[in-house]
Design brief:
single chain, alpha/beta, nine-stranded mixed β-sheet, four-stranded mixed β-sheet, 6 helices
C-alpha cells in the first residue's frame, strides 16, 4: 500500500503551524513540522507558512540556517513548495516592512505596505475577499473564479514577472495574491483557514508531488 504523502511544514519560529498541520491531516497526508534539514529532506513536498513581519521572518530563516536547506530542496531538487502569507512574501527580492530587508529572492518582486484608495479602508486587510484567477494554475483546479479566501496582512506583493502571477485581489487597488513558478507556489491568503476552497487548493498542491 502506498504511504500517505509527507508534507514538511517549515518551522522558523513564526506562523500558525498547528493550523496548517491540521489542514494537512484532513487531506489524509502526514504533516512534519521541523526546522531541520534532514527532516525536511525526507518530505515529499514543503509548506512555508508564516505570520508576522518580513524582517523577523527572513532573520529567523537565516539564523536557523534554513536558506541553504530550502535552496537545495526547492531550487536544486525541485521539491514542490507552497508558501503562505508571510512565507509568500519572503519569496520576494526585498520587503519594506519596518525597514528594507532582502528576501529569499526566488521571485523578482517587492513587498510594500497596502495603501488603499480610499484611504478609509482599514489596514491590515483582514477577512474574506475574492481571488481573481488571471492565469491557469494547478492550484485552482476545481475552484470557481472569484472564490473567497481568508486574508490577514498589511503588506502585499506589488510587482513580479507577469507570467508568474496567477491570482490577484482588489482591496482599494489590486495586489498579487498568488504566484506560480515551476515547482514554487505562493498565496497571500490562508488556505488552511479558507474552508472548502482552501482545502481544495491544498489538495491540488498535494497533487503536484
Amino acid at each position: 500500500m502506498k504511504s500517505s504523502p509527507r508534507l514538511g511544514i517549515v518551522d522558523y519560529g513564526l506562523g500558525n503551524l498547528a493550523s496548517v498541520a491540521g489542514a494537512v491531516e484532513r487531506l489524509g497526508c502526514e504533516p512534519l513540522i521541523s526546522g531541520k534539514s534532514q527532516a525536511l529532506s525526507s518530505a515529499d513536498a514543503l509548506i512555508l507558512p508564516g505570520v508576522g513581519a518580513f524582517g523577523d521572518g527572513i532573520k529567523n530563516i537565516r539564523q536557523r540556517n534554513l536558506v541553504e536547506t530550502l535552496e537545495k530542496l526547492v531550487l536544486g531538487d525541485l521539491k514542490p513548495i507552497l508558501c503562505i502569507c508571510l512565507g509568500f512574501q519572503l519569496l520576494a527580492t526585498n520587503g519594506s516592512e519596518f525597514g528594507e530587508h532582502r528576501g529569499l529572492g526566488w521571485i523578482d518582486a517587492t513587498i510594500e505596505r497596502i495603501r488603499p484608495d480610499p484611504p478609509s479602508l482599514r489596514v491590515p486587510h483582514v477577512g474574506w475577499d475574492e481571488l481573481h484567477q488571471v492565469r491557469d494554475c494547478a492550484l485552482f483546479e476545481g475552484i470557481p473564479q472569484d472564490s473567497l479566501f481568508y486574508y490577514v496582512h498589511s503588506y502585499a506583493m506589488v510587482s513580479a514577472d507577469g507570467d508568474q502571477i496567477v491570482g490577484e485581489c482588489d482591496y482599494g487597488g489590486p495586489f498579487i495574491a498568488a504566484i506560480c513558478k515551476e515547482n514554487i507556489f505562493g498565496v497571500q491568503f490562508h488556505p488552511e483557514k479558507s474552508q472548502r476552497h482552501g482545502l481544495r487548493l491544498l489538495r491540488n498542491f498535494v497533487q503536484q508531488i
